[in-house]
Amino acid sequence: MRTLRRILPSLNSLYVVDAVARHLNLTKAALELGISQPAVSKSIRATEENLGTQLFIRRHRGLSLTLEGRAFVDEVRNALDRVSDAATAIKSASDAEEIRVNVSSSFVSMWLVPNIASFKEQNPSVLFNITENHGDLDQDAFTACDFTTRIGMGAWKEAHCWDLARERLYALASPEYIKAHPECLTLDTLQQSHLLHATETHRSRMGWKEWFAATGTPYLRDQNDMVFSDHHSAIHAALVGQGVTLGWQHLVGGYLGEGRLQIVANTVVRTPQNVFLLSPKNRILRAHHTLFKDWMVARFKQLDAIPQDLDCFDSTTRLGS
Question: Is 295 helix (H, G, I), strand (E, B) or coil?
Fold first, then answer.
């Protein structure tokens, strides 16, 4: 590249050579390029001097290419075509209305998939690239996406963040399980039920011990009935009647609305943390990104309702990031 810069100080001269070779007329080339005819003539002379060879033969009625000129023009056109193809591909990619979302598998299946149709109906040209994660994202994964969600206090210097909802957890079971195990209906006897646990390796979340502590109830269980490595699986087990699971209000609203899960023990525990939508600090949000962000915030507000008759307990436990 340094050698080329010494031979051809300005790559604009290549556009001039290409235009003159196509028209074989300085005036027509000047009109195409939007510059004066003397400027075109000067550029050609400078390029020939820099290359040390004549590219064009000046004739009375126009120009013709020398053998060296024809060979050089062929290479220039090939090079310009390759640069044009690369630039077009990059421009097309940047013009595509794509949104890259990287969220937990639970969020994908229990919130995003059930709700995203309403956004797509209003914005059919927007494409989604959805990646599921199993823990808070590392820096590389975070900067590669447009949006993710995170539970915490919201003080992340590397991100723009928008508050979606307070973190609230219910104890949940299927109607079939509740009918067969009425002991799950009260807080005092809930621990006699089959409690479904989840212990995620790469993400800290509230478990039964912390949930009961928030209600002021000692946790007396010395063994766990069933332990999963992901809360998504624990919730699925509850759906098929395997026991009682903890569920986040913002994720299980659909199941509650359909009647597939019901709140037991008449209790909700609220943590000091919130659910946030995040975007990398250096991400330039285009119009379709902003549409999605605004839709997410509005949709959460629309769905953020809990039954009025529940006993609400505040926890001081902070297990997010």
Answer: helix
What does R_g of the chain's alpha carbons equal in angstroms? 32
Main-chain phi, psi angles of 15, to 5 degrees: -65, -40
pTM of the model: 0.69
| Sole residue written with tokens 């609400």 | 312
**CB proximity list for 201: less than 8 A, separation 6 or greater:** 134, 135, 229
Give the residue carrying structure tokens 């809360």.
231
CA angle 210, 171, 224 (to 5 degrees): 60
β partners of residue 102: 131
Contacts of 133 (CB under 8 A, 6+ apart): 102, 103, 104, 105, 141, 148
**The tokens of 1 are what?**
């590249």
**150 near 203, Cβ under 8 Å?**
no
How many CB atoms sit inside 10 A of residue 73's CB? 19
Candidates 158, 169, 130; CA nearest to 271 is 169
- pLDDT tens across 48-98, in order? 999 999 999 998 888 999 999 999 999 999 999 999 888 877 766 665 789
